[in-house]
Amino acid sequence: MLIGLTGSIGAGKSTVAARLKVLGAYVIDADEIAREASSRGSEGLGEIVSAFGEGVLQADGVLDRKKLAAIVFAEEEKRFALNAILHPRILNAMRKRAAEVLTAKKTAIVVYDMPLLIETGEHARVDSVWLVTASDETRIARVMARDACTRDEARRRIAAQMPQEEKRAYAHEIIDNSGDLNALYARVDALYETAKGKYGET
After folding, report:
1. Dihedrals φ, ψ of 12, to 5°?
2. Which residues of 37-75 are buried (b: 16+ CB within 10 A; e: fewer)?
3. Which CATH fold would you assign to the domain 2-36+87-196?
4. Rounded CA gap, 57 and 40, in Å?
5. For the chain, which residues score pLDDT lower than 70?
6. Which residue of 9, 30, 171, 190 sits 20 to 30 Å from the alpha carbon of 120, by its own alpha carbon?
7. Nearest by Cα to 17 from 201, 141, 197, 175
8. What was the pLDDT predicted at 70?
């Protein structure tokens, strides 16, 4: 089974992904692959520098992700340019890894941990879309704490993504993460058991 796990920034998708990994799912992290695709010396990083200039690099030649984020969240065209460089590499790598796991073990439950699952159209390739949600205020607070940014910066990052309500139309399962961790885990555990019974090992 291939599950597409997604959610707007600050919803808590990574927390859900971590729980699914503990439960036994094979989680493929799109952000981790993006870091690999833009690592020092990579073809992806070379294209990023060509598009955005040497200023996005640290002194040691490593990508300054915070500086790049500030650029792409401020200008939509630049965000599109970055996505055009990274998305094909990310999708190809994720599909390859998923295929390898499912070929080796047909009953495996593979999870795409992917913020832009719907925006890239990859939701059409998975068996089930799981959407993690939280209130706007909760997400703003989480982004501010995580990224050490201002409220306005957090709001801009949220606004740069597809609205959470629009994503609901694509979801097979909604995971509300506005409450406490125990409630979140109970919901995720129940969904995983159902998935195992339907697609995976019983």
Report:
1. 105, 25
2. bbeeeeebbebbbeebeeebbeeeeebeeeebbebbbee
3. Rossmann fold (3.40.50)
4. 9
5. 200-202
6. 190
7. 175
8. 87
